[in-house]
Design a protein that fits this description.
By secondary structure, this protein is of the alpha/beta class. It has two domains: 2-197, NAD(P)-binding Rossmann-like Domain (Rossmann fold, 3-Layer(aba) Sandwich); 199-432, Rossmann fold (3-Layer(aba) Sandwich), CATH 3.40.50.720. It is 43% helix and 14% strand. The protein is built from 17 helices and 14 strands. It has helices spanning 12-21, 33-40, 51-60, 70-74, 98-108, 127-138, 158-163, 175-184, 199-230, 234-242, 263-276, 282-305, 332-342, 355-362, 389-392, 396-402, 417-422, and strands at 2-6, 25-29, 64-67, 79-82, 115-119, 144-148, 167-171, 193-197, 313-317, 346-350, 367-368, 381-384, 407-410, 426-428. The strands form three sheets. A six-stranded parallel beta sheet has the order 3-2-1-4-5-6, with helices on both faces. Helix 14 links the parallel strand 10 and strand 11 (367-368). The N and C termini lie far apart (53 Å). Bound molecules: nicotinamide-adenine-dinucleotide. Residues 6-12, 29-32, 35, 83-86, 99, 102-103, 106, 120-122, 151, 153, 155, 261-262 line the site of nicotinamide-adenine-dinucleotide.
């Protein structure tokens, strides 16, 4: 199948690489010439486990191309996938549709023969209708269908999730469009569940899922606060809850709050849509407010640990919003660091993959270290903010030699608290 993908970000690029690997002829389009230049030069623009190898393989085998030209990517395509950003609107916090509307308008004139236009971006209910109207207005004779194809990949596992989806949701209103999508996902037949629903249901499924997961994280964080007051241990409580198959054990790790490019914006967009439709969604509102407060509270814990120390040095381990990715968008680490900076903190940080993206956001507001031990040099407190496996292996004895004061705020419960305490650390985990 000939496929054009609009947007080569965290969704568009792994999707393009994955579809090429399945044997399709894929053209990835992005409006940012710098990105396309880098990709054309054979370099990858973001970190995802296993992506680079597949990228090189498919470029070499001639199935994966990059361009800034909408015409080049769309005119021969049987399927055009929209994977542009839908960030929160700066004022209303609803999903800002300007990139979607621009992409739909730009692609319309190049449609040639029957084409399915599928939206992988997370978009508010009714967007399929808007895209359809925009295309018809621009190109009244175009032969096309608009399909909702929400993306459920987890950053950090994008390649794995592409090849092992636990479900494929398709919101299509015509049989012809359904057949194109069936053909696209034929390699996964028998391996995964494909759910055909109304386009508006499909658009809603994505928001409903993300809001649910955000609420689940917020719930376990509140439960962690309860454990701290009552002498229970949140890790044990999570394990016990997770064994109940009705609950499941995922998204039950207490931590510094949810983050990333999806949950914060999707919960706000869902809350906006609820208000617009006069529906009370108090659970989502509570998760949004509670999650913002949580990051502030984590910063307070870190500052409390160095209270009384003159010009304290704060060592931060972890900048990405979660392990396995270099993405720092809406990372709890970024919000916690912002709060610490407001308190004039002196911060040095290290992350195994996200130094470049963090530096882009934070510039010279903090210092950067080359390793997890360098970050500890003369530190007065260590704050662990991302759950990288590497940090679990931190040699606490070595840490005692490097740090000026022995304080650890482990916002991910990665370290052995008892061992840390036995070495003289003032160690504080979450929910313990
Ligand atoms: P991103 O910001 O990483 O990438 C978007 C890309 O689209 C950018 O490179 C941008 O230059 C490009 N672009 C914007 N307008 C364009 C246009 N008119 N023509 C060509 N290129 C254009 O975004 P992302 O994280 O990949 O997310 C994309 C969408 O997928 C969002 O709606 C997001 O909510 C959704 N989503 C993201 C994830 C995730 O894990 N990141 C998971 C599921 C769904």
């Amino acid at each position: 199948m000939k496929i054009g993908i609009i947007g080569t970000g965290y969704v568009g690029l792994p999707t393009g690489v994955g579809l090429a690997e399945l044997g399709n002829d894929v053209v990835c389009i992005d409006r940012e010439p710098q990105k396309i230049d880098v990709l054309k030069a054979g370099k990858i623009t973001l970190y995802e486990d296993g992506l680079e190898e597949l990228f090189h393989k498919n470029v070499k085998e001639g199935r994966l191309h990059f361009t800034t030209s909408m015409q080049e990517g769309v005119e021969n395509a049987d399927l055009v996938i929209i994977a542009v950003g839908t960030p929160p609107h700066p004022v209303t916090k609803e999903a800002d549709m300007k990139y979607i509307h621009a992409a739909a308008t730009e692609l319309a004139v190049y449609l040639n023969g029957y084409t399915v236009v599928a939206t992988k971006s997370t978009v508010p209910v009714g967007t399929g209708d808007d895209i359809e109207a925009l295309i018809k207005k621009k190109n009244p004779f175009a032969d096309f269908d608009v399909v909702s194809l929400p993306e459920f990949l987890r950053e950090g596992f994008a390649v794995h999730d592409f090849f092992h989806p636990d479900r494929i949701v398709v919101g299509a209103n015509t049989e012809k469009a359904k057949n194109v999508i069936r053909e696209l996902y034929k390699p996964f037949e028998g391996q995964t569940q494909m759910l055909f629903v109304k386009r508006r249901s499909s658009e809603t499924i994505k928001y409903a899922s993300n809001a649910f997961l955000a609420i689940k994280i917020h719930y376990i964080n509140e439960m962690a606060n309860f454990c701290e007051k009552t002498g229970a241990d949140i890790d044990e409580v999570s394990r016990g809850m997770g064994l109940d198959t009705r609950i499941g054990n995922r998204f039950l790790n207490a931590g510094p709050g949810y983050g990333g490019s999806c949950f914060p914006k999707d919960t706000m967009a869902m809350a906006f849509m609820a208000r617009q439709n006069d529906v009370d969604m108090t659970l989502i509102d509570a998760a949004i407010t509670g999650n913002t407060a949580r990051k502030k509270e984590m910063a307070e814990r870190i500052l409390k640990a160095v209270k009384g120390i003159e010009n304290p040095k704060i060592a931060v381990l972890g900048l990405a919003f979660k392990n396995g990715t270099d993405d720092c968008r809406e990372s709890p680490a970024m919000d916690i660091i912002a709060e610490l900076l407001e308190n004039k903190a002196n911060i040095t940080a290290y992350d195994p993959k996200a130094m470049g993206t963090a530096c882009y956001l934070l510039g010279d507001k903090i210092e950067y270290a080359d390793s997890m031990y360098q970050v500890l040099q003369d530190a007065d407190v260590l704050a662990i903010l991302t759950e990288w496996d590497e940090f679990r292996k931190l040699d606490l004895e070595k840490a005692t030699e490097l740090m000026r004061h022995k304080n650890i705020i482990d916002c991910r419960n990665l370290l052995d608290g008892e061992k840390a305490r036995s070495l003289g650390f003032n160690y504080k985990g979450i929910g313990k």
